[in-house]
Design goal:
heterodimer, A: about 110 residues, mainly beta, 5-stranded antiparallel sheet, about 0% helix, B: about 110 residues, 7-stranded mixed sheet, 4-stranded antiparallel sheet, globular
């Protein structure tokens, strides 16, 4: 069983559209991270959310941490081709992970010009 | 910009060859990791280290081995490469920080075994 479930797994949209991707779990976390991985590169941290209900904005990206700190969403407004990449959520801990980060399976986003 | 480096970036080799993938970081991080990832797919942790002389196997079984003789260096070795080892290998290091543990990733090594 995956600790973190990300949906959708694949998303292909046109430039200018809005989208939301999700990261869900049945466990409670003290913090949650979102990473973006561009083709041919390693993932890069976008944001860390730590407070239930917290909303953070990064230009056209809006991140929300659920009130119960079990889930998170990432909303992109007016998507651009440069947003194309694999979006990964990650948390510390889990039954077998201890103090290591556990990553979700990712959402592969393609924004077509 | 993260100071973590991987070499080579691309490697094409024949079956049975021994290879070592290099990973170095200049941030003084104690924790380092190796992940295996197929294009556009999830990361699979194969090895990690919490410091010098500390190495542990990750969540995905791997025939590779690692060593951590120096803080900044965490090489991964395959004694006899096979086509099933074809994948991207990502190295990362982390710093506990004050609001969660950020991992810094290298650019990866794309390995193809013929």
């Amino acid at each position: 069983t995956q600790l973190l479930e990300q949906s959708p797994q694949f998303l292909s949209i046109q430039e200018g559209e809005n989208l939301t991707v999700y990261c869900n779990s049945s466990s409670v976390f003290s913090s949650l991270q979102w990473y973006r991985q561009e083709p041919g590169e390693g993932p890069v941290l976008l944001v860390t959310v730590v407070t239930g209900g917290e909303v953070k904005k990064l230009k056209r990206l809006t991140f929300q941490f659920g009130d119960a700190r079990k889930d998170s969403s990432l909303h992109i407004t007016a998507a651009q081709p440069g947003d194309t990449g694999l979006y990964l959520c990650a948390v510390l801990g889990g039954e077998t992970s201890g103090s290591r980060l556990t990553f979700g399976e990712g959402t592969q986003l393609t924004v077509n010009p | 910009e993260a100071d973590i480096y991987q070499t080579p970036r691309y490697l094409v080799i024949g079956t049975g060859k021994k290879i070592t993938l290099e990973c170095s970081q200049t941030m003084g991080h104690d924790k380092m990791y190796w992940y295996q990832q197929d294009p556009g797919m999830e990361l699979h942790l194969i090895h990690y280290s919490y410091g010098v002389n500390s190495t542990e196997k990750g969540d995905l079984s791997s025939e590779s081995t690692v060593s951590r003789i120096r803080t900044e260096h965490f090489p991964l070795t395959l004694e006899s490469a096979r086509p099933s080892h074809t994948s991207q290998y990502l190295c990362a290091s982390s710093d506990p920080g004050t609001s969660g543990e950020e991992q810094f990733f290298g650019p990866g090594t794309r390995l193809t075994v013929l």
